[in-house]
Q: What sequence folds into this?
């Protein structure tokens, strides 16, 4: 860390301490440590950068985590899976969007670094084609991040859920336009689910079935998890056993940001809403836009200006492969557990997604499902991805237990002992018995719960103001 960075860090700490004791934190329950951490993140994470590559390297180095009771194994994804994913996505873009050319030669997988991932295997387990797998997709605004930052938290979940973890990776924006990120993740799914070839180990798959995989991710990783599920459903590729989404960023058009009311408490900045025809320039863009633009090379800056957005072509910003909240079909997805904070800026997207999934099913279908199509847990006073930033908090520990129980249920749904497992590993631990006054809430918003400061869950009906989402209109081919 340079002396300028250290000086800024000290300045932010002193400022945060003064605010805490003079004005008070944004949420009364916050400790001094929580307040200082959120304050520093708000003023140093999504801000203008001079060198995005160095910024990524610094983040990776400062957040590198180790494991205690697990083995780590690096793997390189063979080019045949990357080409398979590229061809699959390119055909999909042509058939579904009428536009297969979302990016130029500079974003082709063949012009990028090798695609690597990491296995995390608890010591009491052995990796095999019979393993149950958490396919984890890290967050970072699609711009930075690394699975190595999540090792400790995912080791915790893996041990509690009796699974192994596949720490995925993907190319970053703005260097690479969407859907390169989904393409990389699909390549890794093809690698996991392709047959084992003992005669050709370099190109061999892992022989794992789709129902042995739970996809999971935080923030941008939650976005990519959801986009991947929608894509795989549309192409009938396969269906995961389930999905765990932590503070998922589901709408890159940011349609709900004009009505958010908690931007002063979260470290995620207030982003600007865009449409397929209205974007922003580097001078007028939000913090995320400026971070991606000013920290990039001249070549990448030109690509950003050409596409109109740091992540995707502006005209496709509400496409489901970019913004799954903007889809028109929410059926036939795996069972989903969403976890979001009351003090975070993108909470509205979680509630809208929850409602859209529920609306896709009848009440009878929801009630008869072994695992509900979607369950959402809303944590009081918690910020964006709180469990990753403050894993030591009781709320975070309870959150990971609930996620682990959900994962166990997903992998046991075909078991004869499912009902027994469901009782032993409840998703909604510490659920307060419903009172008669809660029944109307439960019927209106099934399977959505508020987690209070004592870690108790109660039925919850969100009454937040929202604005219409930018529903994507399916491309119709001319005869």
A:
């Amino acid at each position: 860390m340079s002396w300028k960075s250290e000086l800024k860090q000290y300045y932010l700490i002193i400022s945060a301490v003064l605010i805490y004791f003079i004005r008070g934190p944004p949420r009364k329950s916050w400790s001094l440590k929580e307040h200082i951490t959120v304050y520093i993140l708000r003023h140093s994470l999504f801000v203008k950068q001079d060198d995005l590559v160095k910024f990524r390297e610094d983040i990776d180095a400062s957040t590198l985590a180790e494991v205690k009771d697990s083995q780590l194994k690096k793997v390189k994804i063979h080019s045949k899976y990357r080409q398979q994913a590229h061809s699959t996505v390119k055909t999909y873009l042509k058939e579904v969007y009428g536009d297969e050319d979302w990016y130029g030669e500079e974003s082709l997988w063949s012009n990028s670094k090798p695609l690597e991932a990491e296995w995390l295997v608890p010591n009491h387990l052995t990796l095999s084609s019979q393993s149950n797998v958490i396919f984890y997709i890290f967050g970072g605004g699609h711009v930075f991040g690394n699975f190595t930052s999540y090792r400790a938290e995912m080791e915790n979940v893996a041990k509690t859920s009796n699974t192994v973890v596949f720490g995925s990776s993907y190319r970053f924006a703005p260097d690479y336009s969407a859907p390169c990120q989904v393409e990389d993740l699909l390549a890794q799914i093809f690698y996991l689910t392709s047959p084992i070839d003992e005669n050709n180990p370099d190109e061999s798959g892992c022989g794992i079935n789709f129902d042995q995989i739970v996809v999971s991710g935080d923030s941008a990783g939650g976005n990519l998890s959801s986009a991947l599920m929608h894509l795989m459903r549309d192409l009938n590729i396969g269906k995961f056993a389930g999905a765990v989404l932590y503070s998922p960023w589901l709408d890159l058009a940011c349609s709900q940001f004009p009505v958010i009311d908690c931007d002063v408490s979260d470290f995620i900045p207030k982003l600007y809403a865009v449409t397929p025809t209205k974007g922003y320039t580097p001078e007028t863009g939000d913090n995320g836009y400026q971070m991606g633009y000013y920290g990039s090379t001249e070549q990448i800056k030109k690509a950003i200006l050409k596409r109109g957005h740091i992540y995707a072509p502006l005209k496709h910003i509400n496409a489901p492969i970019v913004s799954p909240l903007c889809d028109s079909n929410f059926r036939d997805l795996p069972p989903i557990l969403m976890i979001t904070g009351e003090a975070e800026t993108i909470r509205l997207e979680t509630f809208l997604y929850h409602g859209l999934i529920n609306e896709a099913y009848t009440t009878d279908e929801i009630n008869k499902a072994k695992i509900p199509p979607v369950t959402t847990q809303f944590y009081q006073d918690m910020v964006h991805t709180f469990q990753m930033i403050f894993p030591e908090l009781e709320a975070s520990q309870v959150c990971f237990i609930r996620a682990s129980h959900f994962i166990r249920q997903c992998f046991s749904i075909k078991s004869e002992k499912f009902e027994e497992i469901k009782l032993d590993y409840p998703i909604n631990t510490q659920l307060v018995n419903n009172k008669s006054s809660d029944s109307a809430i439960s019927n209106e918003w099934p399977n959505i719960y508020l987690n209070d400061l004592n870690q108790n869950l109660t039925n919850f009906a969100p009454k937040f103001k929202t604005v219409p989402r930018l529903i994507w209109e399916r491309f119709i081919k001319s005869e």
Q: What stands out?
A: The two ends are 60 Å apart (CA to CA). The chain has a mean pLDDT of 94.
